[in-house]
Design a protein that fits this description.
2,3-Dihydroxybiphenyl 1,2-Dioxygenase, domain 1; ten-stranded mixed beta sheet; eight-stranded mixed beta sheet; 20 strands
Length: 373
Protein backbone atom coordinates (compact mmCIF):
# COMPACT_ATOMS: atom_id res chain seq x y z
CA UNK A 1 0.00 0.00 0.00
CA UNK A 2 1.06 3.50 -0.55
CA UNK A 3 -0.55 6.53 0.73
CA UNK A 4 -3.53 8.08 -0.97
CA UNK A 5 -2.30 11.50 0.02
CA UNK A 6 0.62 11.01 -2.36
CA UNK A 7 -1.75 10.56 -5.27
CA UNK A 8 -3.24 13.66 -6.87
CA UNK A 9 -6.84 13.78 -7.93
CA UNK A 10 -7.76 12.43 -11.34
CA UNK A 11 -10.06 13.76 -14.02
CA UNK A 12 -12.12 12.01 -16.64
CA UNK A 13 -10.50 11.61 -20.03
CA UNK A 14 -10.98 14.00 -22.89
CA UNK A 15 -8.35 12.66 -25.30
CA UNK A 16 -7.17 9.38 -26.81
CA UNK A 17 -3.88 8.00 -25.47
CA UNK A 18 -0.99 6.79 -27.61
CA UNK A 19 -1.12 3.12 -28.59
CA UNK A 20 2.66 2.70 -28.22
CA UNK A 21 4.85 3.06 -25.12
CA UNK A 22 6.60 6.42 -24.80
CA UNK A 23 10.24 6.63 -23.75
CA UNK A 24 11.20 9.72 -21.80
CA UNK A 25 14.57 11.40 -22.31
CA UNK A 26 17.48 9.35 -21.02
CA UNK A 27 15.34 6.29 -20.19
CA UNK A 28 16.00 2.76 -21.39
CA UNK A 29 12.48 1.61 -20.44
CA UNK A 30 9.03 3.13 -20.81
CA UNK A 31 6.65 3.37 -17.83
CA UNK A 32 5.08 0.07 -16.79
CA UNK A 33 3.36 -1.58 -19.73
CA UNK A 34 1.42 -4.05 -17.61
CA UNK A 35 1.42 -6.29 -14.56
CA UNK A 36 1.18 -10.05 -15.14
CA UNK A 37 -0.56 -12.49 -12.79
CA UNK A 38 -0.27 -16.26 -13.20
CA UNK A 39 -3.63 -17.31 -11.80
CA UNK A 40 -5.37 -20.54 -10.90
CA UNK A 41 -8.53 -19.82 -12.89
CA UNK A 42 -8.88 -16.89 -15.28
CA UNK A 43 -12.66 -16.87 -15.29
CA UNK A 44 -12.66 -16.56 -11.50
CA UNK A 45 -10.14 -13.71 -11.73
CA UNK A 46 -12.31 -11.92 -14.28
CA UNK A 47 -15.14 -11.67 -11.76
CA UNK A 48 -13.03 -9.06 -9.99
CA UNK A 49 -10.95 -7.39 -12.67
CA UNK A 50 -13.56 -7.32 -15.44
CA UNK A 51 -16.87 -7.40 -13.60
CA UNK A 52 -16.16 -5.24 -10.52
CA UNK A 53 -13.20 -3.06 -11.51
CA UNK A 54 -14.55 -2.84 -15.09
CA UNK A 55 -11.26 -3.36 -16.90
CA UNK A 56 -11.91 -4.11 -20.56
CA UNK A 57 -10.69 -7.31 -22.22
CA UNK A 58 -8.61 -6.44 -25.28
CA UNK A 59 -7.22 -9.92 -25.94
CA UNK A 60 -8.12 -13.49 -24.95
CA UNK A 61 -6.02 -16.13 -26.66
CA UNK A 62 -3.85 -19.20 -26.43
CA UNK A 63 -0.26 -18.02 -26.07
CA UNK A 64 2.88 -19.68 -27.36
CA UNK A 65 4.36 -21.40 -24.29
CA UNK A 66 7.86 -20.93 -25.72
CA UNK A 67 7.49 -17.18 -25.08
CA UNK A 68 7.43 -18.11 -21.37
CA UNK A 69 10.27 -20.61 -21.60
CA UNK A 70 7.80 -23.51 -21.37
CA UNK A 71 7.67 -26.74 -23.35
CA UNK A 72 5.28 -26.95 -26.28
CA UNK A 73 3.12 -29.55 -24.51
CA UNK A 74 2.14 -26.88 -21.99
CA UNK A 75 -0.93 -24.73 -22.70
CA UNK A 76 -1.05 -21.05 -21.79
CA UNK A 77 -4.14 -18.87 -21.89
CA UNK A 78 -3.53 -15.13 -21.88
CA UNK A 79 -6.16 -12.47 -21.18
CA UNK A 80 -5.11 -8.82 -21.38
CA UNK A 81 -7.24 -6.15 -19.74
CA UNK A 82 -6.98 -2.40 -20.15
CA UNK A 83 -8.05 0.67 -18.20
CA UNK A 84 -8.14 2.72 -21.39
CA UNK A 85 -4.48 3.31 -22.27
CA UNK A 86 -3.18 0.43 -24.42
CA UNK A 87 0.46 1.35 -23.77
CA UNK A 88 0.43 1.95 -20.02
CA UNK A 89 -0.74 0.41 -16.77
CA UNK A 90 -2.58 -2.65 -18.05
CA UNK A 91 -3.07 -6.13 -16.59
CA UNK A 92 -2.49 -9.60 -18.05
CA UNK A 93 -3.85 -12.82 -16.59
CA UNK A 94 -2.14 -16.11 -17.47
CA UNK A 95 -3.28 -19.64 -16.80
CA UNK A 96 -0.85 -22.50 -17.35
CA UNK A 97 -2.18 -26.02 -17.98
CA UNK A 98 -0.05 -29.15 -18.02
CA UNK A 99 2.67 -28.35 -15.50
CA UNK A 100 3.48 -31.25 -13.18
CA UNK A 101 4.72 -29.13 -10.28
CA UNK A 102 2.41 -28.73 -7.31
CA UNK A 103 0.64 -25.37 -7.35
CA UNK A 104 1.79 -23.20 -4.47
CA UNK A 105 -0.76 -22.11 -1.91
CA UNK A 106 -1.94 -18.51 -2.26
CA UNK A 107 -1.60 -15.92 0.47
CA UNK A 108 -5.05 -15.71 2.06
CA UNK A 109 -4.21 -13.97 5.32
CA UNK A 110 -6.40 -11.00 6.32
CA UNK A 111 -3.25 -8.93 6.81
CA UNK A 112 -0.30 -7.83 4.69
CA UNK A 113 3.23 -9.13 5.01
CA UNK A 114 6.60 -9.53 3.34
CA UNK A 115 6.39 -11.37 -0.02
CA UNK A 116 3.05 -9.76 -0.86
CA UNK A 117 2.68 -8.02 -4.19
CA UNK A 118 0.06 -5.44 -5.10
CA UNK A 119 -1.40 -3.63 -8.05
CA UNK A 120 -2.31 -0.04 -7.23
CA UNK A 121 -5.09 1.86 -9.01
CA UNK A 122 -6.89 5.20 -8.66
CA UNK A 123 -10.66 5.52 -8.80
CA UNK A 124 -13.50 7.94 -8.09
CA UNK A 125 -15.91 5.19 -7.03
CA UNK A 126 -14.15 3.58 -4.08
CA UNK A 127 -17.20 3.34 -1.80
CA UNK A 128 -19.32 1.42 -4.29
CA UNK A 129 -16.37 -0.80 -5.19
CA UNK A 130 -15.88 -1.49 -1.48
CA UNK A 131 -19.50 -2.63 -1.16
CA UNK A 132 -19.17 -4.94 -4.18
CA UNK A 133 -15.86 -6.40 -3.01
CA UNK A 134 -17.36 -7.20 0.41
CA UNK A 135 -20.49 -8.70 -1.14
CA UNK A 136 -18.37 -10.93 -3.38
CA UNK A 137 -16.51 -12.32 -0.38
CA UNK A 138 -12.98 -11.10 -1.09
CA UNK A 139 -10.56 -10.88 1.84
CA UNK A 140 -10.46 -7.21 2.84
CA UNK A 141 -7.45 -6.00 4.79
CA UNK A 142 -8.75 -2.45 5.12
CA UNK A 143 -11.95 -0.74 3.94
CA UNK A 144 -11.59 2.83 2.66
CA UNK A 145 -9.59 4.65 5.33
CA UNK A 146 -7.78 7.96 5.60
CA UNK A 147 -4.21 7.13 6.55
CA UNK A 148 -3.24 10.65 7.51
CA UNK A 149 -5.76 13.45 7.95
CA UNK A 150 -4.94 16.69 6.14
CA UNK A 151 -6.56 19.81 7.67
CA UNK A 152 -6.44 21.56 4.29
CA UNK A 153 -8.74 19.02 2.65
CA UNK A 154 -12.50 19.45 2.32
CA UNK A 155 -12.76 15.75 1.45
CA UNK A 156 -9.98 13.50 2.71
CA UNK A 157 -8.09 11.04 0.51
CA UNK A 158 -8.93 7.41 1.19
CA UNK A 159 -7.57 4.04 0.19
CA UNK A 160 -8.50 0.40 0.65
CA UNK A 161 -6.73 -2.91 0.26
CA UNK A 162 -7.98 -6.44 -0.37
CA UNK A 163 -6.88 -9.76 -1.85
CA UNK A 164 -8.02 -11.11 -5.19
CA UNK A 165 -8.96 -14.77 -5.71
CA UNK A 166 -5.27 -15.74 -5.93
CA UNK A 167 -4.19 -13.76 -2.89
CA UNK A 168 -2.59 -10.91 -4.83
CA UNK A 169 -3.21 -7.54 -3.19
CA UNK A 170 -5.30 -4.83 -4.82
CA UNK A 171 -4.78 -1.30 -3.47
CA UNK A 172 -7.37 1.31 -4.51
CA UNK A 173 -6.78 5.02 -4.00
CA UNK A 174 -9.24 7.90 -4.15
CA UNK A 175 -7.83 11.40 -4.04
CA UNK A 176 -9.33 14.07 -1.82
CA UNK A 177 -10.53 17.60 -2.54
CA UNK A 178 -8.60 20.56 -1.16
CA UNK A 179 -10.55 23.38 0.46
CA UNK A 180 -9.01 25.94 -1.90
CA UNK A 181 -9.39 23.88 -5.09
CA UNK A 182 -11.85 24.76 -7.89
CA UNK A 183 -13.64 21.47 -7.18
CA UNK A 184 -14.46 22.54 -3.63
CA UNK A 185 -17.23 24.92 -4.70
CA UNK A 186 -19.32 22.15 -6.25
CA UNK A 187 -18.00 19.11 -4.36
CA UNK A 188 -20.52 16.64 -3.03
CA UNK A 189 -19.52 15.53 0.44
CA UNK A 190 -19.59 11.71 0.55
CA UNK A 191 -22.22 10.08 2.73
CA UNK A 192 -19.52 7.73 4.02
CA UNK A 193 -17.22 8.94 6.76
CA UNK A 194 -13.92 7.07 6.49
CA UNK A 195 -12.00 5.78 9.44
CA UNK A 196 -9.15 8.26 10.07
CA UNK A 197 -6.12 6.37 11.28
CA UNK A 198 -3.26 8.81 11.36
CA UNK A 199 -2.58 12.34 12.47
CA UNK A 200 0.62 14.28 12.23
CA UNK A 201 1.09 13.62 15.94
CA UNK A 202 1.07 9.82 15.70
CA UNK A 203 2.37 9.19 12.19
CA UNK A 204 5.94 9.64 11.05
CA UNK A 205 7.19 9.93 7.48
CA UNK A 206 10.92 10.39 7.63
CA UNK A 207 12.20 11.40 4.19
CA UNK A 208 15.52 9.78 3.33
CA UNK A 209 16.07 11.78 0.15
CA UNK A 210 14.54 15.04 -1.07
CA UNK A 211 11.22 14.24 -2.71
CA UNK A 212 11.29 14.44 -6.50
CA UNK A 213 9.00 17.24 -7.67
CA UNK A 214 6.96 15.55 -10.37
CA UNK A 215 5.47 17.53 -13.24
CA UNK A 216 3.72 14.57 -14.80
CA UNK A 217 -0.03 14.71 -15.36
CA UNK A 218 -1.88 11.73 -13.86
CA UNK A 219 -3.69 9.40 -16.20
CA UNK A 220 -7.44 10.10 -16.25
CA UNK A 221 -10.29 7.70 -15.88
CA UNK A 222 -11.11 7.00 -19.51
CA UNK A 223 -14.70 6.83 -20.81
CA UNK A 224 -16.37 3.59 -19.82
CA UNK A 225 -13.74 2.81 -17.17
CA UNK A 226 -14.05 2.67 -13.40
CA UNK A 227 -10.36 2.97 -12.57
CA UNK A 228 -7.43 4.79 -14.16
CA UNK A 229 -4.48 2.91 -15.70
CA UNK A 230 -2.37 1.27 -13.02
CA UNK A 231 -0.55 3.73 -10.77
CA UNK A 232 2.13 1.20 -9.95
CA UNK A 233 2.97 -2.31 -8.90
CA UNK A 234 4.36 -2.79 -5.42
CA UNK A 235 6.48 -5.57 -3.95
CA UNK A 236 6.85 -5.95 -0.18
CA UNK A 237 10.32 -7.35 -0.56
CA UNK A 238 12.82 -9.23 1.53
CA UNK A 239 15.82 -7.01 0.74
CA UNK A 240 15.14 -3.44 -0.32
CA UNK A 241 18.73 -2.78 -1.36
CA UNK A 242 18.83 -5.82 -3.67
CA UNK A 243 15.54 -4.72 -5.24
CA UNK A 244 16.87 -1.22 -5.79
CA UNK A 245 19.90 -2.64 -7.59
CA UNK A 246 17.55 -4.60 -9.85
CA UNK A 247 15.14 -1.76 -10.67
CA UNK A 248 16.67 1.61 -9.88
CA UNK A 249 20.34 1.06 -10.57
CA UNK A 250 20.18 -1.33 -13.54
CA UNK A 251 17.27 0.39 -15.28
CA UNK A 252 18.23 3.95 -14.35
CA UNK A 253 14.84 4.72 -12.84
CA UNK A 254 14.15 7.96 -10.95
CA UNK A 255 13.17 7.87 -7.27
CA UNK A 256 9.92 9.73 -6.72
CA UNK A 257 10.23 9.18 -2.97
CA UNK A 258 12.14 7.17 -0.39
CA UNK A 259 10.37 7.42 2.97
CA UNK A 260 10.39 5.51 6.23
CA UNK A 261 6.83 5.24 7.58
CA UNK A 262 5.60 4.30 11.01
CA UNK A 263 2.41 4.84 12.96
CA UNK A 264 -1.22 3.81 12.96
CA UNK A 265 -2.08 4.69 9.37
CA UNK A 266 0.55 2.62 7.64
CA UNK A 267 -0.35 -0.33 9.88
CA UNK A 268 -4.10 -0.03 9.34
CA UNK A 269 -3.95 -0.41 5.58
CA UNK A 270 -2.26 -3.80 6.09
CA UNK A 271 -4.40 -4.76 9.09
CA UNK A 272 -1.30 -5.20 11.28
CA UNK A 273 0.17 -3.59 14.39
CA UNK A 274 3.59 -2.28 15.30
CA UNK A 275 5.25 -2.59 11.89
CA UNK A 276 7.33 0.02 10.12
CA UNK A 277 7.87 0.37 6.40
CA UNK A 278 10.44 1.77 4.03
CA UNK A 279 8.75 2.83 0.80
CA UNK A 280 10.53 3.68 -2.44
CA UNK A 281 8.58 4.59 -5.58
CA UNK A 282 10.47 4.49 -8.88
CA UNK A 283 9.59 6.15 -12.18
CA UNK A 284 10.83 5.63 -15.74
CA UNK A 285 11.55 9.35 -16.00
CA UNK A 286 8.76 11.50 -14.59
CA UNK A 287 5.46 9.64 -14.55
CA UNK A 288 2.33 9.56 -12.39
CA UNK A 289 1.28 6.12 -13.65
CA UNK A 290 3.14 2.97 -14.54
CA UNK A 291 5.57 3.22 -11.63
CA UNK A 292 7.22 0.54 -9.48
CA UNK A 293 7.05 0.39 -5.68
CA UNK A 294 9.91 -1.22 -3.73
CA UNK A 295 8.87 -1.64 -0.09
CA UNK A 296 10.26 -3.40 2.96
CA UNK A 297 8.50 -4.09 6.26
CA UNK A 298 10.27 -4.09 9.62
CA UNK A 299 9.21 -5.66 12.91
CA UNK A 300 7.52 -8.77 11.52
CA UNK A 301 7.50 -12.01 13.51
CA UNK A 302 6.44 -14.32 10.69
CA UNK A 303 8.13 -17.12 8.79
CA UNK A 304 8.21 -15.80 5.24
CA UNK A 305 8.61 -18.36 2.43
CA UNK A 306 11.66 -17.97 0.18
CA UNK A 307 11.15 -16.42 -3.25
CA UNK A 308 10.22 -18.69 -6.12
CA UNK A 309 13.33 -19.50 -8.15
CA UNK A 310 11.75 -21.97 -10.58
CA UNK A 311 13.36 -21.80 -14.05
CA UNK A 312 9.97 -21.25 -15.70
CA UNK A 313 6.80 -19.34 -14.77
CA UNK A 314 4.36 -21.16 -12.52
CA UNK A 315 0.83 -20.60 -11.29
CA UNK A 316 1.07 -18.20 -8.37
CA UNK A 317 3.86 -16.18 -9.93
CA UNK A 318 3.54 -12.45 -10.39
CA UNK A 319 5.37 -10.39 -12.94
CA UNK A 320 5.47 -7.20 -14.91
CA UNK A 321 6.19 -6.26 -18.51
CA UNK A 322 8.48 -3.37 -19.38
CA UNK A 323 9.12 -2.14 -22.91
CA UNK A 324 12.77 -1.35 -23.58
CA UNK A 325 14.95 -0.12 -26.42
CA UNK A 326 18.11 -1.93 -25.27
CA UNK A 327 17.20 -5.50 -24.44
CA UNK A 328 20.66 -6.88 -25.19
CA UNK A 329 22.33 -4.29 -22.97
CA UNK A 330 19.97 -5.08 -20.11
CA UNK A 331 20.57 -8.79 -20.57
CA UNK A 332 24.31 -8.26 -20.16
CA UNK A 333 23.82 -6.14 -17.04
CA UNK A 334 21.50 -8.61 -15.33
CA UNK A 335 23.75 -11.56 -16.12
CA UNK A 336 26.79 -9.71 -14.80
CA UNK A 337 24.89 -8.89 -11.60
CA UNK A 338 23.95 -12.54 -11.09
CA UNK A 339 20.18 -12.26 -11.49
CA UNK A 340 18.26 -15.33 -12.66
CA UNK A 341 17.48 -15.40 -16.38
CA UNK A 342 14.49 -17.51 -17.39
CA UNK A 343 14.69 -16.73 -21.11
CA UNK A 344 17.41 -14.73 -22.89
CA UNK A 345 16.40 -12.22 -25.59
CA UNK A 346 14.28 -14.26 -28.00
CA UNK A 347 12.23 -13.29 -31.05
CA UNK A 348 8.51 -13.98 -30.50
CA UNK A 349 5.24 -13.16 -32.24
CA UNK A 350 6.73 -13.86 -35.64
CA UNK A 351 9.71 -11.63 -34.91
CA UNK A 352 7.70 -8.48 -34.20
CA UNK A 353 9.14 -8.36 -30.68
CA UNK A 354 12.20 -9.60 -28.84
CA UNK A 355 11.53 -10.62 -25.24
CA UNK A 356 13.40 -11.89 -22.20
CA UNK A 357 12.34 -12.89 -18.71
CA UNK A 358 14.34 -12.23 -15.52
CA UNK A 359 13.39 -12.99 -11.92
CA UNK A 360 13.90 -10.11 -9.49
CA UNK A 361 15.26 -10.73 -5.96
CA UNK A 362 11.76 -11.65 -4.71
CA UNK A 363 11.05 -14.05 -7.54
CA UNK A 364 8.76 -11.76 -9.54
CA UNK A 365 9.17 -12.30 -13.28
CA UNK A 366 10.08 -9.18 -15.23
CA UNK A 367 9.44 -9.53 -18.96
CA UNK A 368 11.36 -7.07 -21.11
CA UNK A 369 9.88 -6.41 -24.54
CA UNK A 370 11.66 -4.71 -27.43
CA UNK A 371 9.55 -3.75 -30.43
CA UNK A 372 11.17 -4.64 -33.75
CA UNK A 373 10.70 -2.68 -36.95
Amino acid sequence: AVLGMLIPGIAHAQSTPSDKPVFQDGQVIAPLYRANLYVRDIDTSLKLYRDILKLKIVSDQAWDPRAHGLDTDIQVREVILSAGNPALGNLALYHITGQKEEVRKPFLEPYGHTADVATVWSTKDIWNINDEVHAAGYIVLAPPVTLLANPNMLVQSVEMQFRDADGFLVNLLQGGIAKDSPEAATAKIPDHLPEVMGTRENTSSEARIPRFVSKATPEPIYPGQRIAPMSRTTTFGRDRDASLIFYRDTLGMTQLMSNYWKGTGINRIKNVHGLEQWAVILMAGDSSNGNIGVYQLYGEKLDIPPPNKAPVPQIGDRGLSLVTKDIEGLHRKYRAAGFQTLTPPTAVQGGSTTEMMIRDPDGSIVTFVQLNG
